[in-house]
Amino acid sequence: MPIGAFPITLKRQMVLAILVFLIFICGGRHLEATEQPTPFRVGIHEKPPYALKNPDGTWTGIAPGLWKGISDATGLQIEFVEVPYEDLIQQVADGKIDAAAGEIEVSPESEKLIAFTQPFLTTNLCIAIKKVSWESAWKNVFEDFFDWSIAKYLIGIFIAMATFSFLLWFIERHHGTGHFHGGITGIGSALWFSAVTMTTVGYGDKTPATILGRSIAVCWMILGVVLVSSFTATVTSSISSAKMGNSIERFSDFSHLACGCMSGTISAQILRRLGVVTHEYESISEAFEELAAGKIEAVVGDRNTLIYVSREFSRRKPPIHINIPSFRFRDAFLAIPIQENHKDYKRINEAMLQFTMSEEWLELLHKWTGNSRERI
User: Fold this and answer.
1) What would the DSSP string read from start to end of 7-57?
2) Between these two residues, 291 and 36, which has the higher pLDDT value?
3) Containing H/E element for 281?
4) Does this model's pTM top 0.85?
């Protein structure tokens, strides 16, 4: 039957079916063309210089720079998700985020939960202490003196010297040499003798002549050396205590100090394990504020972070100078935590390794740490 012979209703139904089919085909192609790739969610926490949040909500620092290089190489659409630092690893393990960015150290505990890429940076855990000038050091010495820390030694020395002088005068006052004759004059001579003997000067203008007097003098020589050495050690200890922040060389130099650190970090775990008095803060900057106020005595953390924050404090008005000695707890290897068996693990790892061999990476490190030699 010719098409024109079809009833009008049937013609309309055929035309409508053809239109629906064409709309379906064109619409499907349009949806396929406009469909956006699923973003790769990266957990991040503000911790300079590894990650800093700008006022407009964007991120900058070492970690965002690294992820930009990875994104350019892999084509992944990176979406940063702000997460509390102590929750980064767990959220990766739970699948809430695909990976994490920042100062995240490879550790046996974390390896049980997630996978890590190859390390992208080698750093170390160090200590920061408020820098003390020589003027402040001597001020502390005088404060110790008036707080009887040093004065008690001086009083003890004078009492011992007066006692010895009286005994020596009492024994030698009638001897024919006449070195210690007389009342006040003789006692004064004995005091002079005891002072020069104790300090090992020994002019020889006054000397005991009797056997008993010389025996007491020998005892005084030995006791004087002990007293002077003890006094010198006390003063030295007072100065060293004030200046110790500038020359820490071993754990015992600061194990007695109250130390601050960022909560949830390896630094906090190490300090507690070593039995150090530990105060945990939300950020290193907050810990530095407490250090500057004298509420804690040291801050422990990643060297790059300590250097970055200390520079910020040195630019204040008035500046606060923080010293970071060369002493270090241990080296730390920073890597990217990612879900185990993640489909993008291999290409992310390859892109990261390729990027960390580039000049762009060296420039990024130099910008944020001032040192490009820390590349692994």
Assistant:
1) -HHHHHHHHHHHHHHHHHHHHHHHHHHHPPPPPEEEEE--BTTTBEE-TTS
2) 291
3) strand 278-281
4) no
